[in-house]
Amino acid sequence: MTGKTYVVTGASRGIGLEFVKQIISEGDIVFACARNVSSSKELVDLAAKNKNNVIPIVLDTTKLDTIHSAVLEVAEKAPDGIDILINNAGIGSTLDYNIETVPQEEFTKVINTNLIGTSNVTQQFIPLLRKRGEQELKKIVNISSIIGSITAMDGSRGSGQGPAYGISKTALNMLTRLTANHLRSENFIVFSIHPGWVSTDLGGASAPVTSQESVRGILNKIQQCQPTDSGEFFGFTGASLEW
Ligand SMILES: NC(=O)c1ccc[n+]([C@@H]2O[C@H](COP(=O)([O-])OP(=O)(O)OC[C@H]3O[C@@H](n4cnc5c(N)ncnc54)[C@H](OP(=O)(O)O)[C@@H]3O)[C@@H](O)[C@H]2O)c1
Fold it and tell me: Which residues cross the membrane (predicted)?
């Protein structure tokens, strides 16, 4: 799939930075959004070496003004719009909390980033995706987590990242289904995908999946997905996951 234009959030490190590397290796263009571009030496270096394909953009998913100015900048540089939005930015939650102890501030912080931030970004980038026209397939991918699967938590008291994280990703999955339904008639495909347990700052060093493997699988799914995949939940291998 050459000649596509992507927007990726949380591109400063981890899975988001790996998206940037693999997208440009296929000859595509990526607007690499990070809340603090200059603090990511890898992103700055990648952009310097690939001036035509990597455009770093300042965007904090929890700050509407930065999303607004990011959209204006992308619109100026990509006047015909974008093909794919990858909502990757996210934060973990504090492992020490359980459902009895998790404080309000924890819910507020995690849900604000993982759910509301994603919704903010999607709302503001939809017009740039629509610019591609009704005939073109447009895609929105929400990076979710198996920890947001209610079925996967059967019998569990919550695993991995603490309750606020899992709940934020469950809600993100509902956002995915509703966004898919909202945009279905306009030739959009919208889905949630679990990247695997990936060795990043968030996943930790003992995670079994590398960001390279994870992103290869997700990009493959993005390229192969069909309209019937819209509103659904997948793993990075492309297999369906239970909600
Ligand atoms: N790693 C895993 O095992 C795993 C498993 C399931 C799901 N996921 C999901 O995969 C996505 C990427 O995770 P990761 O493992 O790559 O984590 P990571 O290494 O901690 O990177 C997180 C990225 O999100 C960015 N970010 C956080 N809050 C942001 C905000 N308000 N605005 C803009 N960017 C923000 C960070 O930017 P800064 O550098 O500025 O902090 C960073 O670029 C997340 O949505 C995560 O929930 C990861």
Answer: none
CATH of 5-235, one of 3.40.50.720, 3.30.70.100, 3.30.420.40, 3.30.70.20: 3.40.50.720
Domain ranges of the chain: 5-235
Counting ligand 1 atoms within 8 A of each CB, the residue from 7, 8, 13, 57 with the most, and so the one to mutate, is: 13
Q: What is the pLDDT along the chain (243 residues), one digit of tens a residue?
A: 459 999 999 999 999 999 999 999 999 999 999 999 999 999 999 999 999 999 999 999 999 999 999 999 999 999 999 999 999 999 998 877 888 999 999 999 999 999 999 999 999 999 999 999 999 999 999 999 999 999 998 877 666 668 999 999 999 999 999 999 999 999 999 999 999 999 999 999 999 999 999 999 999 999 999 999 999 999 999 999 999
φ and ψ at residue 104, rounded to 5 degrees: -55, -40
Instruction: Please give the backbone phi and psi of residue 7, each rounded to the nearest 5 degrees, phi first.
Output: -120, 130
In this structure, what token pair is assigned to residue 27? 């000859």
Distance 130 CA to ligand 1 centre (A): 26
